[in-house]
Amino acid sequence: MRVWVYLSVFAALVLMTVLELVLFSLPLPRLIIDMSIVGLAGGKAILIALFFQHLAYEPRSLSAFALLGLGSVVAFLFLSVYSIIGIVFR
User: Are 72 and 30 in contact (CB under 8 A)?
Assistant: First the structure.
């Protein structure tokens, strides 16, 4: 794989981290900040799994196992956001 792919993924990860830091300084409701942070963290996890753990270049039969893990992560993120909403609106 070309070096520019790794560098562009690294740049995207740095950009997402900067966005997370900027979110804390904005006068937004806590719920919006929390949900944005969880979404950015999920995006960073997907980029890391696809490119730095080389899942994007695995055969499709092996990628099916990664979908099981990805489904678990999505369920965990959904439950996290659901619990955040539950805490905020009590």
Answer: no
Residue type at 82? Y
Range(s) of the domain holding residue 81: 3-88
Give first-to-last CA distance, the chain, whole Å: 50
- Global model pTM greater than 0.85: no
- CA 24 to chain centroid, in Å, comes to 17
Is 16's pLDDT higher than 70?
A: yes
- Number of domains forming the structure of the chain: 1
In the predicted model, is pLDDT for residue 12 greater than 80?
yes
Reported as type and span, the H/E element at residue 34 is helix 30-47
